[in-house]
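Summary: Need help interpreting a holo structure output

Steps to reproduce:
1. Submit the protein chain below together with the SMILES for adenosine-5'-diphosphate.
2. Request a joint structure prediction with the ligand placed.
3. Inspect the structure token block that comes back.

Expected: a single structure record containing both the chain and the bound molecule.
Actual: see attached output.

Input attached:
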Amino acid sequence: MYLFGEHAVVYGEPAVPCAIERRATVTVAERGDDRQRVSAADLTLDGFTVEYGASDDAPDVDVPTPLVEAAMGYVDAAMATARDAADRPDAGLDVTIESDIPLGAGLGSSAAVVVAAIDAATRELGVDLAPEAIAERAYEVERDVQSGEASRADTFCSAVGGAVRVEGSDCRTLATPDLPFVVGYDGTSHDTGELVAGVRALREEYDFARDTVGSIGDLVRRGEEALREGDVAELGRLMDVNHGLLAALGVSARSLDEMVWAAREGGAAGAKLTGAGGGGCIVALDDGAGAETALSLTPACDESFRAELATDGVRAE
Ligand SMILES: Nc1ncnc2c1ncn2[C@@H]1O[C@H](COP(=O)(O)OP(=O)(O)O)[C@@H](O)[C@H]1O
Ligand SMILES: C[C@@](O)(CCOP(=O)(O)O)CC(=O)O
Ligand SMILES: [Mg+2]
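--- attached output ---
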């Protein structure tokens, strides 16, 4: 999830994503043939299994192909890069995905699945990649699936864990104080690629949208100072501003605004949407119970929970 900087990070501004204790688990077993089988029970298509040959163009399933492509794009590309890393272009793989990360809701489920899938598949094919190498391949997957536009933020954070700072290709981990994250989730899901394309179109049409992206960068740099000082009140104020700037880029939603206001009025130091937006999740900072209670009483909010910072990134279990 993002403390600061989503969207602007795609245009080279810094961002600070944080890994939380919600995980995607990917199990990979090599097959005796060249076919790929993916079982993803948590997908919104109500759970389905796809089986297809490396060279077949149509998966053998009874749902519309564009839907399957949208759902399978990240996993498919993750398997392809893993086969490439192992120099085994024809390796058949059985892949099982389980995840407790809401899908398409701004908590980086795509990055978690892609990073875990690349790690599991390369291990199965006898290659041991460092987390940074997994992160780089996972970034390329997100970039390709999101039509050429992505940052390294989610994928680097997911691979190495903790709080990180990403600016272009410069990715590093950050020491942070213990932050009292509270998440509100409206139960909906949205496509990151489409929201990123919307911001691109706005930037092309309006100079002030470019300035808004630059302002998010300025805000993130101030946020880094507040992080170093452990100043939660200032972090909260900057999160509020970040939410406003994201709304100006057209990626908020009524449900997100309602949850953000509920969290603030419940006593949060600040609150903002996280990730691509359009719906999904907000993140707030609150060391008391007020924000979580206020969110649980908000009709727009489907689920609210505390989120612990995860110090571990990708790992074999
Ligand atoms: N449990 C899962 N099983 C299979 N694919 C998943 C799973 N979770 C996420 N994905 C993939 O990630 C996509 C959602 O990613 P994205 O739109 O970037 O949203 P976010 O990263 O904010 O959750 C899904 O459409 C699917 O392709
Ligand atoms: C909007 C963006 O900055 C973050 C998207 O995050 P998510 O997929 O909603 O977790 C895109 C990116 O950085 O690739
Ligand atoms: Mg994503």
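--- end attachment ---

Reviewer comment: The chain has nine helices and twelve strands. The chain has two domains: 24-166, 176-307.
Status: needs-info
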